[in-house]
């Protein structure tokens, strides 16, 4: 009979091997958004399948219309053990801007920092390092007698580009993926010493807008003053989206946005959150966004409208006297509570249309929409996970929110009828999606130990 102590000892003993395996995965350039890396995404999926089959899982690559999924199953020692579905993603964000990386983003390395050792590479924290904490916890049990829970693994290769193939895959594989509980390792700790169970995620809607005016680019001297400039039109629309107090001006945008319950507000106030440091760490000093709200409230419980990129006209070296024919921007909306992503996008399109001057037209390109999510606070698996985390870290975990979005959590609930337990070991300064992404060695090591404890606790 495998014991938790044996598994924990195995994890400690195997740490170097675990890092070597993680580095193997980090070397693969599985950038899902860029078609040039399609073969690398396939290589990452195959890498995982080989790894898992070697461990004793029954694992396979499962093709989709986009990048493949990886699905794997392993049975617990005891037939009556609970069954968990663990989800992670093997794809990563593009590494750009490359010149800001200190070394090759796909040549993982260990770095000694004042706070401890860390792993630097694209995907170190989001999400390869995190998903491997769970795989390594399974390995420790499988090498010392067997798993305490039946385990199904689902690894996706399109999370960073909006999971386009996921809903159809879940619908077509319900029986293969159903379990008692879903678990994810794609969120953060409260701070480097305090674990967190994430119970709130913001929703996300992504929409690109192209504004077109003249039938071709024009000479800005010969036509300037007479011809419409679509960059001006777009810039005005962007500027109109927020009022002077930082509130979003789209009609109906705040429908379904709840005020924070007193009780939750009080809990968040009791957390030791240093606003000045949160901003100071990224070179800022003043909160932007809606005035009069705390930063935790702004990032966990309030919606946003952002422009993620804007292009138009001549952006090369030197100057060019041009009046461009088109301008475009990519918008993202983070949503909370019961905000309806479809209603937000409809309001946004109407807002843009209403601001188009004569001779201008707008094209809208949709890149996905998923609602916000709040998980039940009081559930048996959640209290077991709380105790397991407290045992590992020596402090009670924070029950918190996250400003990020993980659309699958909503889809698992809707399509498979399961709640998700979100425990992650990332830190706010991991620079996910940014140059020099890192994952703390302590996150990787104690994260693996945490999953071992959680699996044992769920099995009772
Ligand atoms: N793992 C992140 C989201 C996250 C990070 C949640 C930290 C909580 C704590 C995830 O991979 C991510 O980046 N999601 C995207 C959405 C996706 C559709 C591109 C996001 O939130 O921008
Ligand atoms: Mn992620």
Question: What does this protein structure show overall?
Answer:
The protein is 34% helix and 22% strand. The chain folds into two domains: 285 residues, Zn peptidases (Aminopeptidase, 3-Layer(aba) Sandwich), CATH 3.40.630; 123 residues, Alpha-Beta Plaits (2-Layer Sandwich). The protein starts with a helix and ends with a helix. The longest helix is centred in the N-terminal third of the chain and has 18 residues. It has 460 residues and is an alpha+beta fold. It is globular, with a radius of gyration of 24 Å. The strands form four sheets. Strands 1, 2, 3, 6, 7, 8, 15, 16 and 17 form a nine-stranded mixed beta sheet that branches. It has a four-stranded antiparallel beta sheet with strand order 11-13-9-14, with helices on one face. The chain has a three-stranded antiparallel beta sheet with strand order 4-5-18. Manganese (II) ion (MN) binds next to loops. Manganese (II) ion binds next to loops.
Under the CATH scheme, which class of the largest domain? Alpha Beta
**Helix proportion:** 25-40%
Distinct ligands: ligand BES, manganese (II) ion
Q: From the 3D coordinates, which CATH architecture of the largest domain would you assign?
A: 3-Layer(aba) Sandwich
CATH fold topology of the largest domain: Aminopeptidase
- State the secondary-structure class: alpha+beta
Question: How many extended strands?
Answer: 18
Q: Indicate the proportion of strand residues.
A: 15-25%
Q: Segments where pLDDT lies below 50 for 5+ residues?
A: none
CATH superfamily of the largest domain: Zn peptidases
Q: What's the overall geometry?
A: globular
Rounded average pLDDT: 96
Task: Give the helix tally.
Answer: 14
Give Rg in angstroms: 24 Å
